[in-house]
Amino acid sequence: MTGLAPSRVEIQARLEQALAERVPVAVATVVRGGQVGAKLLILPEETLGGLGDATLDTAVQSDVPELLARERSETRPYDVAGHDEPVEVFIETFPPPPTLLIFGAVHVAQPLSRFAKALGFDVVVSDARAKLATRERFPDADRIIQGWPDETLDQVEILPNTYVAILSHDPKFDEPALVGTLATPAAYIGAIGSRSTNEDRRRRLAEAGMSPEQIARIRAPIGLDIGAATPEEMAISILGEIIALRRGRSGGSLTFATGRIRGEGDPTVGDRDPTAVYRNHAVGDGEGAAAAR
Fold first, then answer.
1. Within the chain, what is the greatest distance between any pair of CA atoms?
2. What is the pLDDT of residues 206-234, one digit of tens each?
3. Which of 43, 103, 273, 275 has its CA at a distance of 20 to 30 angstroms from the CA of residue 72?
4. 3-state SS assignment for residue 263
5. Which residues pair with 41 in a beta bridge?
6. Measured between alpha carbons, how far is 28 from 37 in angstroms, rounded to an integer?
7. pLDDT value at position 264?
């Protein structure tokens, strides 16, 4: 239902309640045209407030699920009857924290769990080997499940902001985890192993009936190409790939990229002659300065 002229204090209180309960929520605010400053709080089963026009409320509500799924906030223009120019609405989304689901309580999983938690992920570690999947080894994990992949997937809801790292390096763990997660809306599914291991894995999955589209979702070998050798470096490589995916980035070097340096976007990584960058953006070149912003 839509509340009748609630105060900003009421909207803020309901927002804080939703955040505490980890309910996906968005706040829409008119920033140009129409009733500037009008707010609409949008939750899965209710709304509170209003933007000054019922059709505008409905249009904004219809855009929120897509923005929540993409973990994006942005300003959007809307055509509203009675206004010569579009009404601009800033939609700020508050999706639940992303989840990192780790299959395989191996050495790499320990720094991966620790680093991911520091980045704001809910971390779930799964392994059927009780000696490995322990609180002592994973003090930062939100959940530790001592079970096989199918048992874990019965207990964990895979959402569009779930990221899966399959690290056990054992077909009897890895392949059931892949089969189970490829049928879900997980944002990322990565698997450890050499190139030859992953080629064999893809072949077996195809023989088991997985479609080419499903198999193409697998990020394997997992992580960015940074030459990672230690468990900590491998964890950084994996999280780097996940962060790049979340932000719509390529994961390449910023030196030869274009566009914004921080946050969302998709700068183009140049495979061109590196000296061309310096020729095109010499010191003091205003165009080069703009590109750095």
1. 67
2. 988 889 999 999 999 999 999 999 999 99
3. 103
4. coil
5. 27, 48
6. 9
7. 63
User: What are the pLDDT digits (tens) for 33-47?
Assistant: 989 999 999 999 899
pTM for the model stands at: 0.75
Whole-angstrom distance, CA of residue 240 vs CA of residue 157: 24
Q: What angle (nearest 5°) sits at the alpha carbon of residue 224, between those of residues 139 and 198?
A: 90
Q: How far, in Å, CA of 243 to CA of 284, rounded?
A: 33
Residue 63, amino acid:
D
- Does the CA dihedral 71-76-79-81 come out positive or negative? positive
Q: Which residue has the tokens 């056990």?
A: 168
Q: What is the CATH number of domain 99-246?
A: 3.40.50.720
CA-nearest of 18, 100, 20, 8 to 64 is 18
Strand ranges in the chain using DSSP code E only, listed in sequence order: 25-32, 39-42, 47-49, 74-78, 87-94, 99-103, 122-126, 143-145, 162-166, 188-191, 218-219
